[in-house]
Amino acid sequence: MPWSNIERGLRMVWSGMLMCHLLALALQCLLAAANVLEGPQATYPVYGPIWESEGFQDPLAHLYRQGLTACYWLFALAGLWIRQRSIWLNWAWSLPWLVTTLIGLFTGGWPV
Question: What is the pTM for the complete model shown?
Answer without folding.
Answer: 0.54
